[in-house]
Amino acid sequence: MNLRFPAPLRPGDTVGVTSPSSGASGPLQARLDVALATVRDRGYQVVVGDCMDGSGHISAPAAQRAAELQGMLLDPSIRAVVPPWGGETAIDLIDLLDWERIGRAEPTWVVGFSDIATLITPLTLVAGWATIHGNNLMDTPYRTPEGLVSWLDIVTLGQGATVVQTPPGRHRRGFVDYVEHPGADEYLLDVPGSWTRLDSLGGEVDVTGRLVGGCIETLANLAGTRYLDTSRLAELGDGLLVYVEAAGDDAPAICRNLHGMRLNGAFDHARAILVGRTYAPPGETLTQHEAVVDALGMLGIPIVADVECGHWAPYLSLVNGALARVEQGPDTACITQTLA
């Protein structure tokens, strides 16, 4: 695999905004304007595409969304692409994108999470581009809590740079209504909580590998295809750190999806698994943590849960493809990423 990291952004560079899945307009336009201003305040030009309609579950027909996204990815003047947020069916773009052409182009930073993982994870595994699983555009106006790093800072880093992040030990439960509070820029982190060890191996975790992963509900649909063939990243010889997170499906559904991903090889080269914090519901006799252990516990590797890579703020930015070190113990929680 020829893994490549996009060039760092500099003031005056252009950031493209398009919605490969759900759009943000109408009642959400005020929040979108605040988010765009946040990017411009960092010194960047912003180009907003036509696929932004927020009235339905998709921003435009699939062919139009695919063409606009691919156009931004192949435009050398656009140095980063940041969707407003995820959605439901970005998977309908998968077979409309020219992956070979994208793979030959100079890489562009692409940022997002949730349904956007359906696209950024294949961009890493198929096209060989490092991508960022991190807070989306609509969440970008929030001040980054101490210990974490925003995508706005990661995209300025050159190859070989190192990013160290430690969780703040508190998180937010619930969402902010952006229609009512379009200018919200400070998280209310009112729930204490730290990383949780799910495996029974004992001892402290200190493991390295290449990062890859994303939203369970969306990535599970790519299992068994080249778009979730993690063996390609494992060819670099560093092992993998696979991160997963449940957006909202109940524990039995998450359990089934994780079993399917495992049976299709998604975790074959994992040295550890990181599980995002979730408030997705349990089943009658199965919790979300138990679902993970049921599906992945037999792998015999560390499983660290309640990591800040889920749908609940704050957000710990993870670079797909980066060489990372995860440390976790009674008094330790840290992830170090190197863009190399």
Describe this structure in words.
The protein is an alpha/beta fold. The two termini are 13 Å apart. The mean pLDDT is 97. The chain has 9 helices and 16 strands.
What key phrases describe this protein's structure?
eight-stranded mixed beta sheet, alpha/beta, 22% strand
What string gives the helices and strands in order?
A: EHEHEHEHEHEEEEEHHEHEHEEEE
Could you report the average pLDDT, rounded to the nearest whole number?
Answer: 97
Shape: globular
Distance between the termini: 13 Å
Which blocks of ≥5 consecutive residues have pLDDT under 50?
none
Q: Report the sheet-strand fraction.
A: 15-25%
Question: Layout of SSEs?
Answer:
Elements: E1 14-17, H1 29-41, E2 45-48, H2 62-74, E3 78-81, H3 99-104, E4 109-112, H4 117-125, E5 131-133, H5 151-154, E6 162-165, E7 170-171, E8 191-192, E9 196-197, E10 205-215, H6 216-219, H7 231-234, E11 240-245, H8 251-263, E12 270-276, H9 288-296, E13 303-307, E14 318-320, E15 323-329, E16 332-338
Parallel strand pairs: 1-2, 1-3, 3-4, 4-5, 10-11, 11-12, 12-13
Antiparallel strand pairs: 5-14, 6-16, 7-8, 9-13, 10-15, 15-16
Helix pairs in contact: 8-9
